[in-house]
């Protein structure tokens, strides 16, 4: 078999196995039947059965009387990954300081793939719209201040890749955030050093955000502050951005000792 064909086949198998793991991870306390996994993944039952066999051999999946679930090796991998991506414990005191100083809402978003997951939130004593982003919310890169800060922190080729991949998702829920809008916003964000979302997703609400980088200089998360637009007018933004940058620097310093150096 030619090397290119073999490589393509291996990548397809890896992608399918990864999709199964993602379904299992989406409901970690559930036992999935073979039929349910086949329907959810869109794969033939025989293919799912073969993939599950390989994943069980590696300890990533476990077979129980009720079906299939994540295995112990998945837990070990998840535990290791949490040291890099589960930043909520580190970030809560930082967010609290931003919320107390500004009186507004401070958020932590972590980048996973081409999306940003809201991991932590602290509220100040000023009013905030009920439609403001909550913990657990997931947005495509570029959709919201924290998601835009992360998109703008990526290399140019990765920015274009993210714009292409998220385009179908943005067409529906985030229609105002077009490809051209993102490209302009990335340039503006890079020029000013922070991201701004001014009523684009939720009318009457403004947010500013800065990116947080890991020990290798890669963007991994973003800190943002959201408020009703009257509280984040241009003249007040430098004060808020300075607070965010200060706390982002503290978070980056906390992450360095816990990050394994590249070999």
TrEMBL record:
<keyword id="KW-0804">Transcription</keyword>
<dbReference type="InterPro" id="IPR036390">
    <property type="entry name" value="WH_DNA-bd_sf"/>
</dbReference>
<protein>
    <submittedName>
        <fullName>IclR family transcriptional regulator</fullName>
    </submittedName>
</protein>
<dbReference type="Pfam" id="PF01614">
    <property type="entry name" value="IclR_C"/>
</dbReference>
<dbReference type="InterPro" id="IPR029016">
    <property type="entry name" value="GAF-like_dom_sf"/>
</dbReference>
<dbReference type="InterPro" id="IPR005471">
    <property type="entry name" value="Tscrpt_reg_IclR_N"/>
</dbReference>
<keyword id="KW-0805">Transcription regulation</keyword>
<dbReference type="InterPro" id="IPR036388">
    <property type="entry name" value="WH-like_DNA-bd_sf"/>
</dbReference>
<feature type="domain" description="IclR-ED">
    <location>
        <begin position="73"/>
        <end position="257"/>
    </location>
</feature>
<feature type="domain" description="HTH iclR-type">
    <location>
        <begin position="11"/>
        <end position="72"/>
    </location>
</feature>
<dbReference type="InterPro" id="IPR014757">
    <property type="entry name" value="Tscrpt_reg_IclR_C"/>
</dbReference>
<keyword id="KW-0238">DNA-binding</keyword>
<dbReference type="InterPro" id="IPR050707">
    <property type="entry name" value="HTH_MetabolicPath_Reg"/>
</dbReference>
<dbReference type="Pfam" id="PF09339">
    <property type="entry name" value="HTH_IclR"/>
</dbReference>
